[in-house]
Amino acid sequence: MTVYVSRDSASVSVGADEVAATLERAGVQVLRTGSRGMLWLEPLVEVDTPEGRVGYGPVNPEDVGGLISSGLLDGSAPGLGLVEELPWMRTQNRLTFARVGVIDPLSPDAHLQYGGNVGLQKALAMEPAAVVAEVSDSGLRGRGGAGFPTGIKWKTVLGAEGPLKFVCCNADEGDSSTFADRMLMEGDPFTLIEGMTIAAHAVGASEGYVYIRSEYPDAVATMRAAIEIARAQGWLGDNILGSDLSYDMHVRVGAGAYICGEETSMLESLEGKRGMVRAKPPIPALEGLFGKPTVVNNVLSLGAVPQILAKGAKAYADLGVGRSRGTTIFQLGGNIARGGVYETAFGITLGELVNDLGGGTASGRPIRAVQVGGPLGAYVPVEQFDLPMDYEAFAEAGAMVGHGGIAVFDDTVDMSWMARFAFEFCAAESCGKCTPCRIGAVRGVETMDRIRAGEDREKNLLLLDDLCELMTDGSLCAMGGLTPLPVQSARRHFEEDFTGKDLAR
To answer: Are 123 and 227 found together in one domain?
Structure first.
């Protein structure tokens, strides 16, 4: 019997390596996988049975002996039951994450056995324009937060002139409560490689880069190992899978700057410069890396592409609602009982994610607000938990889906302090190129401190409104332009936290 234990960073941080070592010392054959995403159950141990994999978790090293003696190896020990039938797993639409937690991330044989490279082979048999059309017809939009149609970006690069083009994957995942990029790179790196190779064929690129944040050393190591394996398998390099496509890719590590999640800052960093925002136009699709036409997508966007090519654009577009098609990966974090990743079609409500799947707060106290879309996302009150996870529905409500991160706060949160934090975060992470962001964020912290101290509060609240308007309209990129979003949403829904008498506590 094979026993499966995650090697994902989150699992390792709570003892998965020790559990795996204890099992191996007991003579058990252990296969290390990515994480299923049920992080509250990690370290999760799974065992093969004729009915499917049975799960046990969270498991501590001292639990191993008792589990083995009570029937772990044939799945008869009391546990969680069939993993695929757990409510958290059963209700998902796993496409991008189909292999994560199931296979050895660095096994090329397992990748092929579980459907890998089918999309790539289909793409290589098609003309580049047909591949671009397939991605366009799927309705795939950028999963990095902006939601820009991926097919339009690819079509622009395909039509750009020049012998040298690039594919760049932005894996500088820095938003609060976001970790899906890391989990895909650690749990199924060949999917990202396959997606980037399809993109290269579609637009005529010969070189690609994965820009990974320095805080992800395990993802860096896994991606580098996977690229070496892919080269040895003929999945990268000259004449990939016997085709005319010659394409190779490399990993580059960031230097800890949140701003490099913005595509032009990332390109500056890749060129060896300080990560600072470029003015647009020109757009990266026409003048990107080293001034050449460049596809810039994030991990989840490129990770969705192999399934789109393998199953067809219609199958992907049939999932979702409105202009939000296919699946996306939502990440539940903060003060939440059951945090983790959940892949489903667009349209599930915020309340279903947070209450039904997330189980409410870890503290047991009532939820007061959730922030969706990272530190620049809006705060959403429980009264709006019927909002469907849909780009347009969120925009209409004055919020954004962003990268799919959801941070939960209970009723002890001080929303004026959270508004102050938004400015403080921007002041620390601004690249400094434009005045509204560089200076506005600092003035925002000062204004919030005066409001919280009760100094001429009415006047300073008006000043806060003016400052937010200036930053929104005048900033060069989304760093300064979106910083007012959490501030204004906190004011709109929790005005009492800005007008009370004891805010400076």
So the answer is: yes
* Strand pairing report for 166-171 and 52-56: unpaired
CATH number at residue 85: 3.40.30.10
Residues 348-385 pLDDT 10s = 999 999 999 999 999 999 999 999 999 999 999 999 99
Whether residues 83 and 200 share a domain: the answer is no
> Would you give the end-to-end CA distance of the chain in angstroms?
58
Burial of 314 (0-12, 13-18, 19+ CB in 10 A): exposed
Under 8 Å between Cβ of 437 and 426: yes
Tokens describing residue 401: 């889906």
**274 three-state secondary structure:** coil
Same-domain status, 348 and 439: no
The CATH number linked to 450 is: 1.20.1440.230
**222 has a pLDDT exceeding 90:** yes
Separation in Å, CA 423 to CA 426, 486, 496: 5, 9, 19
DSSP-derived 3-state class of residue 487: helix
Tell me: do 161 and 241 sit in the same domain: yes
CA atoms of 489 and 397, how far apart (whole Å): 10
Instruction: Determine the average pLDDT of the residues in 163-179.
Output: 94
Same domain, 75 and 198: no
- Single out the residue in 382, 410, 438 at which a domain terminates: 410
- Kindly state the tokens that stand for 283: 């757009």
From the list 32, 1, 401, the residue with the least C-alpha distance to 186 is 32
Taking a C-beta distance cutoff of 8 angstroms, is the pair 267, 294 a contact?
yes
Tell me how far apart the alpha carbons of residues 351 and 503 are, in angstroms, rounded to a whole number. Answer: 29
For residues 81 and 54, the answer to whether their CB atoms sit within 8 Å is yes
267, amino acid identity:
L
Is residue 143 situated within a structural domain? yes
| Predicted pLDDT of residue 176 | 85
Using the structure block, give the residue that is written with the tokens 């010392």: 25
Q: Are strands 324-325 and 327-334 parallel, antiparallel or unpaired?
A: unpaired
Range(s) of the domain holding residue 338: 320-410
